[in-house]
Amino acid sequence: MFLLCMIILCILTIHTPIWWHSLIDQVRQLPIIGSDSPEDSWADNIDDELVDDGPIQDLPEGASCVADDNCVTGFCDGICKRILGTGERCGSKNDDECAGSLRCALDERDGKYICCNNVATISGFKYCHGIANDKKCFSDGATDAMCSSGFCDGTCKPKKKEGETCPSQKNHECSINSCALDERDGKYICCNNAATISGFKYCHGIANDKKCFSDGVFDAMCSSGFCDGTCKPKKKEGETCPSQKNRECSNNSCYRSTRYGDYMCCKNINFCGWLDKGCQLFYYYCADYGSKLG
Fold it and tell me: How far is the C-alpha of 76 from the C-alpha of 67, rounded, in Å?
């Protein structure tokens, strides 16, 4: 008798309209009279028969199912669900819920699962690449590709252009991949031609009046080519050079113009020897300015 009932149900399942499946679902939940187990139901026996005879097919969205090929939509998650497109939420976390080559992954760190392309696995979780700005991400630099901008610092952020500040102090925050101090004890900006000095990165081409290192080795830090505590413009022929440093002059020649000082930039010089008057012994003097020497 039991076998006859199952055969009738299977025939009706295959050859009856969709509304009949709802009735079958209710019948499946009825307990079997005389069963050894009170929890035993028609569903257990019917499922066994369905496995033997082949799965139900062409079930509509929302119908109960046990496998993807039961459903018209092609996806089963306990019930038949429609296939999802790019950006749609896939609560099952199952790639099969997404259309074509799309995969189901997190849209940000600690975010929601959506269908997307270019998925990466990080710390055991799947994440979409191309995360929007202000969405959470991992900030170790190795996962910048998660962000559509190409830069992650806890959240996805737009990359900075040359001259803009880069408060993260990370090269990859800049589109030119170089973040350094704009002056000694200054702020970090995106700049080319950075150099490391005393453990800190500094931009070359620092503007006049900005602080720099004045030992002469780092004149190249300044756009003017001369640093004396701050970047300063180089002096021309005949102008004073109070630093008394040759490199302050564009002609690289800074000497005394009077007996005890008044340093000026001058190309032609005289040396003060034993026979010279009006000068201090063993000093060079500008020949074209101040007292005539020798």
Answer: 6
The secondary structure element, H or E, covering residue 203 is: strand 200-203
Closest C-alpha to 115, from 129, 103, 127: 103
Same domain membership, residue 214 and residue 173: yes
Question: What is residue 284's three-state secondary structure?
Answer: strand
pLDDT in tens, 226-255: 998 899 999 999 999 999 999 999 999 999
pLDDT for position 253: 95
58-62's contacts with Cβ under 8 Å and 24+ in sequence apart are 59/18, 59/21, 60/18
Q: Is the pLDDT of residue 56 over 60?
A: yes
Q: How far apart are alpha carbons 207 and 36 in whole angstroms?
A: 92
The residue range of the domain holding 118 is: 104-158
pLDDT for position 15: 47
pTM above 0.85, yes or no: no
Long-range CB pairs of 90-97, under 8 A, 24+ apart, other chains included? 90/114, 90/115, 96/68
Residue 36 located in a structural domain: no
How do beta strands 200-203 and 103-106 pair? unpaired
Residue 292 has pLDDT above 80, yes or no: no
